[in-house]
Amino acid sequence: MTRRWKIILGVGAAAAVVIGAPLTWHMLPPGPFSFVGGRNVSLAEYGGPSPVGVPAQLRNASLVERGKYITEAADCAACHTTTGGTPYAGGRAFRTPFGTLYSPNITADKETGIGTWTDADFVRAVHQGIAKDGTRLYPAFPYESYSLLTDDDVKAIRAYLFSLPPVRAETPANAMKFPFNQRSLMAFWSFFYNPDKRFRPYPDRSPEWNRGAYVTEALAHCGDCHTPRNLGQALDNRNKFAGFVVDGWNAYNITQDRDSGIGAWTDDQIVEYLKTGHTVGRGGAGGPMAEVVEVSLSRMAESDIRAMVTYLRTIPSVRTPDLPAPKAEAASDSHRKMTGTSDARGKQVFQGACVSCHGWSGNSLLTPEATLIGARSVNDISAANVALAVLSGIERPAPGLSMPSFRRAYTDAEVAAVANYVTARFGAKGSALTAKDVAELRAQSEP
Ligand code: HEC
Ligand code: HEC
Ligand code: HEC
Questions:
Q1: What pLDDT score does 333 carry?
Q2: 268 burial class (0-12, 13-18, 19+ CB within 10 angstroms)?
Q3: The dihedral of CA 155, 160, 164, 169: what is its sign?
């Protein structure tokens, strides 16, 4: 071998180690329970009350009733229903960087739904992401979380879906770009990222913690939105629950960090937020989180919500620099921070369209739900969720007051101006959202 070749090979090998090791580390994140430590056991070996299935008060209910609870807790309706459409009839579009994907019809219709699927077909799809005909499914269907579900719980879901009237609804064809339209490639994805292992309880933790772990990870799959993803689109559990972006909305840090996470919230505040989509002094749920509350969390037993809180309390803290501790009161107009570029227009819009509900102090005189002081969104330096709240509005269940959508009323520049005004006035640090940023958010949140 010539000296030149030796040098090239030597440098190549060194580069492979230097680049390869961190890349492998990045590409192969640990599982959802890697933070726990300690021993876990199979359900059969676990001595405590069962952490799986339905809450105690439903244990003797019919299979269909148990299935209903589990289906709602697993939030299957959110993705398999279009706005205003029949639940579970599919057709909802998922815009990914790799193209557009539509959720299928999962009602019992024999031709356009899953009416011919057996228990075994269904369990394989939910655990492994493989359809009845052997087609590989994209992980937009979060089967890496659902693979933690017991077979019995998945069968209960099927029993419930099959108890509903079948709906004839053809699923629109996907428009994925090459090479992502090659479904067989998902076999590699599953090989690396879906271990296809059922939940194993931790005997050293309390029964409530174990129930919370099952509900949070296997059923509610909170990490699907709140955990960042790596380059392979797998959950980066080293930054578990540290926050991610869904359809432009920031799904905030829900680790125990006191400033940027929910470490400073009381248990009751977290419970109230999850059950009702709002908690006094900390703001409310808009966008995708409002939907999770509506179709899933608000229908769950309080014992399960409390168990989730017990589990969430043990998630390691991660700090997000763009999410400072919420500020306790509004800044005055003369404050230096209030002199951002589009400030005058921002104030005008606020005065014309917002102040009647939100007040100059940020403390609403109409309803505590419209109080902006203390809300994460106005303390988020990106202001994305503020702009999205303005564009899309926020529906609150009756008899609550809803926030109207201003999508048609204001230009991108005006939405940016009012968002920057709102964060500067009511938040810890003013944002610098541009009209171009708003144009992107507008496209991502197109109804
Ligand atoms: C985050 C969104 C999301 C959630 C939540 C979700 N799904 Fe899906 N599901 C999808 C998408 C998207 C597809 C289509 C994937 C593809 O085309 O590769 C899919 C595919 C499926 C399929 C395959 C159907 C077929 O005809 O091939 C079944 C079955 C299914 N989901 C059942 C469920 C059940 C049961 C739940 C709740 C436990 C659920 N899904 C929750 C998004 C979701
Ligand atoms: C008709 C009353 C009404 C008007 C007008 C209105 N809002 Fe709202 N807004 C609400 C309510 C009610 C909520 C609380 C929704 C919830 O509980 O999640 C809300 C929520 C918000 C939030 C989210 C707060 C959080 O908890 O994260 C922001 C930001 C916001 N509004 C900004 C604005 C801006 C800016 C305008 C003017 C362009 C405006 N609102 C106009 C009623 C209104
Ligand atoms: C479909 C995506 C999605 C799922 C699933 C989801 N979230 Fe969220 N979550 C969000 C978004 C987006 C926000 C921000 C809402 C806003 O600002 O109006 C949010 C906000 C929150 C907040 C408020 C944080 C703050 O600082 O204000 C908490 C707490 C929360 N989620 C907990 C959970 C838990 C627990 C689960 C599982 C049961 C969960 N979320 C599942 C998208 C999601």
A1: 66
A2: exposed
A3: negative
Q: Is the CB of 372 under 6 A from ligand 2?
A: yes
* Average pLDDT value for residue range 360-389: 95
Name beta bridge partners: 251.
244
Class of domain 336-444: mainly alpha
Q: Is the CB of 129 under 6 A from ligand 3?
A: no
Task: List the helix and strand counts (H, then E) for the chain.
Answer: 17, 7
Say if residue 339's pLDDT is above 70: no
Reply yes or no on whether the pLDDT at 344 is more than 60.
yes
Q: Is the peptide bond before 179 cis (omega within 30 degrees of 0)?
A: yes
CA of 428 to the centre of ligand 3 (A): 21
Query: Distance from the CA of 79 to the center of ligand 1, in angstroms?
Result: 7
Residue among 273, 275, 286, 295 nearest 396 (CA): 286
For ligand 3, pick from 217, 226, 371 the residue to mutate: most ligand atoms within 8 Å of CB. 226
Q: Ligand 1 test: best mutation among 72, 102, 103, most atoms within 8 Å of CB?
A: 103
60: pLDDT strictly greater than 80: yes
CA distances from 183 to 130, 131, 136, 173, 187 (A): 10, 11, 5, 14, 8
Which of 137-146, 157-166, 184-193 shows the lowest mean pLDDT across its residues?
Answer: 184-193
Mutate to test the pocket of ligand 3, among 145, 214, 225, 376 (most ligand atoms within 8 A of CB): 225
pLDDT at 336: 47
Ligand 1 contacts (CB < 6 A) are 74-76, 78-80, 94, 101, 103-104, 106, 114, 125-126, 131, 137-138, 140-142, 146, 157
Distance of alpha carbon 65 from alpha carbon 253, whole angstroms: 34
Task: For residue 349, give the nearest of 377, 387, 375 by alpha carbon.
Answer: 387
The answer to which of 142-146, 233-237, 328-332, 370-374 has the lowest mean pLDDT is 328-332
Provide the residue type at 80 as one letter.
H
pLDDT of 5 strictly over 80: no
**pLDDT tens figures, 297-319:** 999 999 999 999 999 999 999 99
pTM confidence score: 0.95
Domain ranges of the chain: 56-193, 222-312, 336-444
What is the atom index within ligand 3 of the atom nearest the CA of 284?
A: 18
Query: Which residues fall within 8 angstroms of residue 427, CB to CB, at 6 or more apart?
Result: 326, 327, 378, 379, 380
Cα–Cα dist 31/19, whole Å: 23
